[in-house]
């Protein structure tokens, strides 16, 4: 499995339970991140969400919540750092900053994004450990459906002009 697929998988897993705010990443390979405290009728929300479809036991739900709690601050901090660095890059691009400094800022953003993806991946692995082999298989299918849905949304979204 490629690192991009693993990263996307980690990102999707966090859409299931992260309490962090959504991050807008203009990369067609990454679906948008969805916060945990959504309206119930939205995909990934508490009602009818992926975890409901997996039919988790009470113990599994408690363990999943513990995983979310363990990683949510790290994820939130890293997401905020990416947002802030992206804003700084945007400001630099509009100003008189030299190309070398802009490249350095871009590298910083890439490093921050990698750190975020690493934490998300670790969170996903921890959640995976809670699932039975049958639930893992079902989870994989559900995440594939989410990836396809996200891809379709991105392809059908209006393009900025």
TrEMBL record:
Comp. bias intervals (Polar residues): 134-144, 152-161
Residue ranges, annotated region (Disordered): 132-161
Keyword Kinase attached: no
Subcellular localization, as worded in the UniProt entry: Periplasm
InterPro entries: Cpx_auxiliary_protein, LTXXQ
GO cellular-component term (any): outer membrane-bounded periplasmic space
Signal peptide: 1-20
UniProt entry keywords in alphabetical sequence: Coiled coil, Periplasm, Signal
PANTHER family, per database record: PERIPLASMIC CHAPERONE SPY (PTHR38102)
Family per record: Belongs to the CpxP/Spy family.
UniProt protein name: Spy protein
Organism: Tychonema bourrellyi FEM_GT703
């Amino acid at each position: 499995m490629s690192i991009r697929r693993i990263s996307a998988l980690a990102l999707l897993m966090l859409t299931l339970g992260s309490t962090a705010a959504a991050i807008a990443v203009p990369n067609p390979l990454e679906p948008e991140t969805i916060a945990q405290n959504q309206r119930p009728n939205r995909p990934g929300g508490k009602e009818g969400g992926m975890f409901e479809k997996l039919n988790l036991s009470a113990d599994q739900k408690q363990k999943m919540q513990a995983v979310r709690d363990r990683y949510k601050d790290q994820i939130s901090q890293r997401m905020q750092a990416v947002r802030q660095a992206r804003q700084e890059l945007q400001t630099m691009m509009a100003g008189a900053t030299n190309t070398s400094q802009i490249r350095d800022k871009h590298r910083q953003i890439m490093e921050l994004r990698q750190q975020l993806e690493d934490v998300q991946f670790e969170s996903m692995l921890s959640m995976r450990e809670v699932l039975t082999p049958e639930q893992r298989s079902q989870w994989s299918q559900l995440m594939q459906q989410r990836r396809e849905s996200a891809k379709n949304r991105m392809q059908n979204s209006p393009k900025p002009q």
